Amino acid sequence: MNKFPSLEQMAVTSEATLRDALNVIDLNGQGACFIIDKDTLIGVLSDGDIRRALLEGKLMDSSVLQVSNDSFVSLPINTPLKEIQKKLKEYIRIIPIVNKENKLVDFVTASHYHHIPLTQPVLDGNELEYVTDCILSGWISSQGKYVGQFEELFGKYVGNENTLAVSNGTVALHLALVTLGIGPGDEVIVPDLTFVAPVNAVLYVGATPVLVDVERDTMAIDIELAKHAVTDRTRAIIPVHLYGHPADMTGVMDLAEKHNLLVIEDCAEALGSKYKETHVGNFGDAAIFSFFGNKTITTGEGGMLLFKNSKNIEKARMLRDHGMSKERKYWYEYVGYNYRMTNIQAAIGVAQMERVSEFVLRKRWIAEHYKQCLSDVKNITLPGEFGEVYNSYWFYTIVLANGLSSSRDSIINDLIENGVEVRPVFNPMHIMPVYSPYRVSGENYPVANSLAQGISLPSSVTITESDIHRVCSVLRNLLEKYQLDTIHLS
After folding, report:
1. CATH code reported for the domain at 127-353
2. DSSP readout, 129-140?
3. Per CATH, which fold does 7-109 belong to?
4. Of residues 151 and 327, more confidently modeled
5. Separation CA 374–CA 100 (nearest Å)
6. Confidence grade of residue 452 (pLDDT, cut at 50, 70, 90)
7. HSE-up of 483 (CA within 13 Å, CB side)?
8. What is the CATH number of domain 357-489?
């Protein structure tokens, strides 16, 4: 998926010939290759080096070791970007990056140096073809064939045909609440650790969010605590499948049945995730998904709303389109909204759905490689799969131990300085003054406070294995540094 050559496409072994090296250089298009011996960097060989060697009488079957440049420049993996850029300006075309054992872990060039994005969309399938079709047909707004196609493809993938494409995930939450009749005087239980959208959507309809702490392993709402948050005003609960790990939907549904609560699943970050072999979004009365640019599939902005009851989807469809009747043009049965998705957005969505399984598998591949690289690192907790779940790992999010939590922001800044784009875990809702009135009386939210000291690592489906190794190496070095600083300060 990444058109820039991988580290494997840049290297030859010490047993290689000049012919082997030229083949590699032709394939990688970088004008050079690295010579390794059991992953240890021992030389650099350019196409110019090979040409000069042939002119001097060397044969194509000569060993690369007879020609390689052993006075090459390399840099350690934690070299700041500014220093890398300075070296590249000194007419050095390509610089290998090594770890402390001198093993080759990355390389930089003037056009590609050391930046590993947190995530980036992959739009090299049929997106351009379908968008062009929209433009040429003139159907660029919410009318057009791709909206219905996107809804149908999405419904087949998740296993629910009652789908409604909307302009973003937040409006999907709002529309779900309005359609289900939640409003002033009602309480809705929401997790304290979440993106702000579900809490805001509850407030949009005039209801009261009730913040409940989360589980340490899943980062999802703690059902035992949610039980104690139910009052005679509680109408609904919104479980959030945070970072791709499903919430305990058995517990959620048992609680909902006992107290006659509506359930709205926030699956914004969980496309591809399953609970007990069923795709998330199929348990509650409604569910929402998001297609923002950093999501597993994207339409730029966009969302999808699902309902268990087909009558609700018809009502939501009218509300999405200003409340206009299906039978009578410009006759309005509800005070509605303009929450429609454009045909252009849906065209991108159709192309993205053609590759959704590939993207989800890639996310899980990324998670497995991070696990292999970081499983022996102390003072961090890795994500996993807890219970009968299938985690789509939208973001691979680690949590720092208490001793390092005060250094979290410094570690993030240093990672970014080293070309590794990361981001912090969401702030707990209860610590922000605008949402603190909705905390449960006497609750201190210890788990949400602890998990908030987490860091989401680069999780783009374009990330390579060598990129992952570099992220892990930089992270290891920084954790060791800050751990030592913590010991010295104490």
Report:
1. 3.40.640.10
2. HHHHHHHHHT--
3. CBS-domain (3.10.580)
4. 151
5. 17
6. very high
7. 12
8. 3.90.1150.10
